[in-house]
Structures are given as structure tokens and as C-alpha cells.
């Protein structure tokens, strides 16, 4: 059998990168001798995170369109053409059996070039409202794997497969990691733990909230693991000196962070929501309002509507957060019901189901 080759692209944020890595890991486990190549955007986090996961990556000169008039926006047509040309060259040299895109601007030119070369393409859309790149690619895609229902208004119905979002496999069984997690983070086993997740780049509004609420948390003997993001670590790292508070730019052992947590405060990016369903802990979502079509609110609402989480909008935080958090902290029955209900929405086999679709495409080409 000829050695299989797969090319993957997804980046800009952890929400696009980690699903791509999860898919690559599953492909490698099924086809140990296969070749895998990633393509990302130069100077974005995938250029570090993908090699750390053990895969080679090539960078494109591409970036997103800003909402205001900037020099980068004026350069976008040139960057797009350059990236399309480089993508065609990569596809021609690597000759993949399938190209897989998990969102982010680099996946646009790569999958466009792959489709033009007759290579089967798979899109993995994480959100309840698709990003501009995946909408642009959907017409020529072979398969579109989605995590939310009712996406026929955006994508061709006959190409959609409902799989859920890929998640890190080390999250599937975190129950047995409680003691290891407490030792890893040097936590007091008799005190509650709040895990704060503002996304891989960080959230200014959530960081401002936590800085203000630390007195409340500490007064109630709550330990805080606070992932503030790489853009904000210099501004907030001095809080790390406080007892019961750990401030981190990035958390490498997310399995242990989730295992340690009693309560979780999080943005509602698609990958985070999928992970939190698997983890099954009580969550307060604070969706980012600064995303296309407010899709984080839609992501969170899909969970809240089934009584699987609480949600607060940013404009409610100053007046309602303290009372909402304190009520959740005191109400064990509410904690248990939220954890049980969110767990019901987990799709732990998503990565395997997506790879099954990729294999079907390969077999149909033979």
C-alpha cells in the first residue's frame, strides 16, 4: 500500500490549532507510516504549537482583515495572492491524499489550492456560526464536519456530517487525575479551585473582572488558577504573589487544570465549549462580544438552554457577577446538575468520526 500523505491547516488561535493536532494524532495512530504536513500563518501561534506537537509546518504570508482601515488591510490582496501561489507550490511538492482545514486564514489559500489541484478537501467547522474562511471554501469542499446542528443555511446540505469538535484525548478521563493535579499545581486539597480561561490569547475584560474579584475569592478560601493569556501576563503576573492565586500566560497541562477545578469561568469559543462538555464541571460562560455574528454567545446558549451552564454577558459583570458566583459556590445541587447536564452534550468520538470521513474520501478515490 502506498504511503498516505495528509496536509492540515488551521491557526491563529488555539481553537483552530488543537483540533488540527487532534486530527493529525488520530491519523498517525491509524497510519503510523503516513506523512503529515501542517501549513499555518507566519508569526501566529501555530508556528510554535505545531512543532511542539511533533509535526513540521510551513508558514504563509497571510493575516485576517481588520475591522478598520489599516495598512494590513491594504496589503491583504497581495498577501492572499502570495499565499495562494505558495500553497500551490506546497501542494505540488507534497502531493497529499487529502487536505484538511480547521479554520483560520491560512487554511483558505491552502484548501483552495488543494481543491484546484483535484485533491479531496475536508473542512472542520467548530462554531455555531461559520467563519469567513470556511464559508468561502465550502462550495468546493468534499466533506464539511460540523459540531452544531442547523448549518444547512451556510453550507451545502449534502456535504455536512455532524461529528462534533475534536478534543484532546487526555481530557477523556480526568477523574483519576485529581490528586496528581493538586500536587502539580501545589493546591490545598481542602479548598475549592476556580479555573479561569480567557482563551489562548487572553481576554482583557475577564482579566479585569478577576483582578477586581480576587478579594471575594480569597475571602471564601477559593484557590484561583488564572490563565490570563500571553498578551496580559506582564500586566497581571504580580497577582501571582498572592496566596491561593496562580497567574499563567498559558497552561500546558490542561488535563490537570480541568481535573483540579471545582468551578470554571470561561470564554465560549467552540473548542473550549467542546472540552468543557467532556470535562463535566460547573461552568460560567462569559462569551466574547468581539467575534463574527456574536457566535460565542450562540455557542454558550446551546449549552445554557439545556441547563448545562450559566452565562453572563460582559455588560452584566459589574452588577451581577459576584452574586451569581457566590450562589454557585454555595449551591452544591446546582453544581452537580450543571456538571451532569453539560456532560450529556459531550461528543468524545468526534476526532475518530472525522478521520473516518477522511478515510472514506481516500477509499472513494481508489
From TrEMBL:
The EC number on file is 2.4.1.227
The record's listing under Pfam families reads: Glyco_tran_28_C, Glyco_transf_28
According to its UniProt entry, this protein's organism is Flavobacterium lindanitolerans
Q: Where is the Glycosyl transferase family 28 C-terminal domain?
A: 193-351
Give me the reactions it catalyses: di-trans,octa-cis-undecaprenyl diphospho-N-acetyl-alpha-D-muramoyl-L-alanyl-D-glutamyl-meso-2,6-diaminopimeloyl-D-alanyl-D-alanine + UDP-N-acetyl-alpha-D-glucosamine = di-trans,octa-cis-undecaprenyl diphospho-[N-acetyl-alpha-D-glucosaminyl-(1->4)]-N-acetyl-alpha-D-muramoyl-L-alanyl-D-glutamyl-meso-2,6-diaminopimeloyl-D-alanyl-D-alanine + UDP + H(+)
The Swiss-Prot or TrEMBL record describes its family as follows: Belongs to the glycosyltransferase 28 family. MurG subfamily.
Q: What is this protein called?
A: UDP-N-acetylglucosamine--N-acetylmuramyl-(pentapeptide) pyrophosphoryl-undecaprenol N-acetylglucosamine transferase
> Where in the cell?
Cell membrane
GO terms for MF: undecaprenyldiphospho-muramoylpentapeptide beta-N-acetylglucosaminyltransferase activity
- Residues that coordinate or bind UDP-N-acetyl-alpha-D-glucosamine: 13-15, 127, 168, 200, 251, 296
Q: What does the entry list under GO cellular component?
A: plasma membrane
Enzymatic class: transferase
Functional pathway: Cell wall biogenesis; peptidoglycan biosynthesis
* Gene Ontology terms describing biological process: carbohydrate metabolic process; cell division; cell wall organization; peptidoglycan biosynthetic process; regulation of cell shape
Q: What does this protein do?
A: Cell wall formation. Catalyzes the transfer of a GlcNAc subunit on undecaprenyl-pyrophosphoryl-MurNAc-pentapeptide (lipid intermediate I) to form undecaprenyl-pyrophosphoryl-MurNAc-(pentapeptide)GlcNAc (lipid intermediate II).
List keywords of the entry alphabetically. Answer: Cell cycle, Cell division, Cell membrane, Cell shape, Cell wall biogenesis/degradation, Glycosyltransferase, Membrane, Peptidoglycan synthesis, Transferase
Positions of the Glycosyltransferase family 28 N-terminal domain: 6-144
Topology of this chain in the membrane: Peripheral membrane protein
Amino acid at each position: 500500500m502506498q504511503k498516505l500523505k495528509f496536509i492540515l491547516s488551521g491557526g491563529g488561535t488555539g481553537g483552530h490549532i488543537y483540533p488540527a493536532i487532534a486530527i493529525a494524532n488520530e491519523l498517525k495512530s491509524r497510519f503510523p507510516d503516513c506523512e503529515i504536513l501542517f501549513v499555518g500563518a507566519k508569526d501566529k501561534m501555530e508556528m510554535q504549537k505545531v512543532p511542539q506537537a511533533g509535526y513540521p509546518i510551513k508558514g504563509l504570508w497571510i493575516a485576517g482583515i481588520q475591522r478598520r482601515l489599516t495598512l494590513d488591510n491594504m496589503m491583504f490582496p497581495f498577501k492572499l495572492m502570495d499565499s495562494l501561489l505558495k500553497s500551490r507550490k506546497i501542494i505540488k511538492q507534497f502531493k497529499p491524499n487529502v487536505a484538511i482545514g480547521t479554520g483560520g486564514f491560512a487554511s483558505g489559500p491552502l484548501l483552495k489550492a488543494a481543491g484546484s489541484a483535484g485533491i479531496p478537501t475536508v473542512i472542520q467547522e467548530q462554531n455555531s456560526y461559520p467563519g469567513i474562511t470556511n464559508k468561502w471554501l465550502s462550495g468546493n469542499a468534499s466533506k464539511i464536519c460540523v459540531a452544531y446542528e442547523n448549518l444547512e443555511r451556510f453550507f451545502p446540505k449534502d456535504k455536512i456530517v455532524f461529528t462534533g469538535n475534536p478534543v484532546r484525548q487526555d481530557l477523556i478521563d480526568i477523574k483519576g487525575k485529581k490528586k496528581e493535579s493538586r500536587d502539580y499545581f501545589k493546591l490545598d486539597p481542602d479548598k475549592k479551585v476556580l479555573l479561569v480561561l480567557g482563551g489562548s490569547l487572553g481576554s482583557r475584560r475577564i482579566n479585569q473582572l478577576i483582578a477586581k474579584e480576587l478579594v471575594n475569592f480569597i475571602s471564601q478560601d477559593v484557590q484561583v488558577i488564572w490563565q490570563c493569556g500571553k498578551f496580559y501576563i506582564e500586566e497581571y503576573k504580580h497577582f501571582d504573589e498572592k496566596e491561593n492565586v496562580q497567574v499563567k500566560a498559558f497552561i500546558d497541562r490542561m488535563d490537570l487544570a480541568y481535573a483540579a477545578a471545582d468551578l470554571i469561568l470561561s470564554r465560549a469559543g467552540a473548542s473550549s465549549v467542546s472540552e468543557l462538555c467532556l470535562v463535566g464541571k460547573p461552568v460560567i460562560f462569559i462569551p466574547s462580544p468581539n467575534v463574527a455574528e456574536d457566535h460565542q454567545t450562540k455557542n454558550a446558549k446551546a449549552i445554557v438552554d439545556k441547563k448545562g451552564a450559566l452565562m453572563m454577558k460582559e455588560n452584566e459583570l459589574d452588577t451581577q457577577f459576584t452574586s451569581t458566583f457566590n450562589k454557585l459556590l454555595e449551591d452544591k445541587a446546582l453544581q452537580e446538575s450543571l456538571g451532569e447536564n453539560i456532560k450529556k452534550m459531550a461528543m468524545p468520538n468526534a476526532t475518530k468520526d472525522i478521520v473516518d470521513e477522511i478515510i472514506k474520501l481516500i477509499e472513494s478515490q481508489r
